Amino acid sequence: MAARLVRHLRASDARVSPWKNGRGSTRELALGPEHASFERGDFDWRISAAGVAEPGPFSVFHGFERVLVVTSGAGLVLEHGPHAPRARLRRMEPYRFSGDWPTGAELVGGPVEDFNVLARRGRFEAEALAVELGARVLRESLGEALVFAHVLARATARVSGEEAPFELAAGDSLAITGTLAHDEIEISGKHDSCGVILVRLSAARGGGG
C-alpha cells in the first residue's frame, strides 16, 4: 500500500478551462490519474468549481456519475427530461445525477457558484459531504479512499499522523491519498461563512478501478 500523502492545493493552483459546451469556464481543482487530461478524456475522476451566470444546458459526460454542490447563491433547478424529476438544488446540499443525462439549469435567484465531482462509472464511486461549518469543528473518518477536502473560508485542518496542521485560505483544498481505515481529519472553521466539502473517491465495487 502506498504511503499516505497530503497535498495542500491553493485556490491559485486551479487550472482554468472552458466548458465542453463552450458556455462558461471551470476551475479544475484536481484530476486523476496523475498523467490524465481532461481534454484527452482519459481521466477517471475530476473535481472542479465553476460559476453559473445564466440559465442553459450543462455539458454531457457520457460514462460518468456526477455530484454537484451549490456553494453560493440562491440555488439551481435542474431538468433531466424523461430521466428524472426536476430537482431544486439548495446551498450545500450535494446532488447526484448521471453525466449521460441531458441536463438544463435554471437560476433560482441570480448567479451561483458550484462544486463538481465527476467519477467514471465502473471505476470510481464518489461520496460527498457538505457542511456549513462556521466557527465549529468537523471530525470525520477518512477511510481507505482518495479524500479531497475543500473549504469556502479560512480554516485549520489536522490529519492524523501529520505533525503540523494545515492553514487553509478560502478556496484551498487538501488532497489525501494512501489513507487507512482509522485515519481522521479534523477541520476547524475560522469564519462564520466557512463551509466544508469532503469528497471520498473509492474504487468501484466489482469494477476495474
If you had to describe this structure to a student in words, what would you say it looks like?
- The radius of gyration is 17 Å and the shape is globular.
- The model has no long low-confidence stretch (mean pLDDT 93).
- The strands form 4 sheets. Strands 2-3-4-11-6-9 form a 6-stranded antiparallel beta sheet, with no helix packed on it.
- 33% of the residues are buried.
- The protein is built from no helices and 19 strands.
- It has 209 residues and is mainly β.
- It has 2 domains: 5-121, Jelly Rolls (Sandwich); 126-203, Jelly Rolls (Sandwich), CATH 2.60.120.
Secondary structure elements and pairings:
Layout: E1 5-9, E2 15-18, E3 25-32, E4 45-52, E5 56-57, E6 64-72, E7 76-79, E8 87-89, E9 95-98, E10 104-107, E11 112-120, E12 124-132, E13 137-141, E14 146-151, E15 155-159, E16 166-168, E17 173-177, E18 184-189, E19 195-203
Antiparallel strand pairs: 1-17, 2-3, 3-4, 4-11, 5-10, 6-9, 6-11, 7-8, 7-10, 12-19, 13-18, 14-17, 14-19, 15-16, 15-18
Structure summarized in a few sentences:
With 209 residues, the protein is an all-beta fold.
